[in-house]
Amino acid sequence: MNKIYDLIVRNKFLINGVGHEIIIPSGTRRSLKKVTLKVRGNNNRLIIGRGTKITNTEIRLDGENNTIELGENCQFKSGKIYLKNGSNKHIRIGNDTTVEGAYLLTDEQANIEIGRDCMLSTEIMIRTGDKHSILDLHSRKRINHAQDIFIHNRVWIGRGALILKGTRLQEETIVGAKSIVTSSFNTANIIIAGCPAKTVKENIYWDRKLL
């Protein structure tokens, strides 16, 4: 295991295995502060785009041929990004997306994709699986397999929202605070809210500025 400590900004990188790629532009390295990176397995990739800032975050990248990628000019202020086990999986966050605080977790052979210029508040959880098994009473077969999560460009997710397996959100969607999202929404420019989340308003778009 290779251990790399950056005492200036209190980063800690723990690398185990072979063939990994850690791609961080030289000008971006100073924008990582209090980041813990743990990589295990083989041939995994972490890609951090130019101008991206990550603070107070733990990143775990396990398995084989898996990828975590944050685009350019992103902000990830606190939380966890866990890609655990499996192979040929990915977590991708698009350019200009900001995250105040979130926990991203992939289970099994499922992926998380977050598009460009999204805005995520704090205390958000995005996970592709349930961690434990649910079995059919008669067949005894498991029925709660992990599923991909796809969040399109320009989605605003409110504080404390829970985004679960199989979710698909289109452009210009707003997710209300404390909502639980469990399904796909095929319409853009909507507000969804509730437990489970439902469409509560249509024909909207949002702006980061208070106009």
Describe the structure.
By secondary structure, the chain is an all-beta fold. It has 2 domains: 1-96, UDP N-Acetylglucosamine Acyltransferase, domain 1 (3 Solenoid), CATH 2.160.10.10; 114-211, Hexapeptide repeat proteins (UDP N-Acetylglucosamine Acyltransferase, domain 1, 3 Solenoid), CATH 2.160.10.10. 0% of the residues lie in helices and 42% in strands. The strands form 2 sheets. It has a 16-stranded mixed beta sheet that branches. The protein has a 7-stranded parallel beta sheet with strand order 3-5-7-10-13-16-19, with no helix packed on it. Strand 1 and strand 2 form a beta hairpin. The model has no long low-confidence stretch (mean pLDDT 94).
Layout of secondary structure:
Layout lengths: L1 E5 L4 E5 L5 E3 L8 E8 L5 E4 L4 E9 L5 E4 L4 E2 L2 E5 L6 E4 L4 E2 L2 E5 L5 E3 L4 E2 L3 E4 L21 E3 L4 E2 L4 E2 L4 E2 L4 E2 L4 E2 L8 E5 L2 E6 L9
Parallel strand pairs: 2-4, 3-5, 4-6, 5-7, 6-8, 6-9, 7-10, 8-11, 9-12, 10-13, 11-14, 12-15, 13-16, 14-17, 15-18, 16-19, 17-20, 18-21, 20-22
Antiparallel strand pairs: 1-2, 22-23
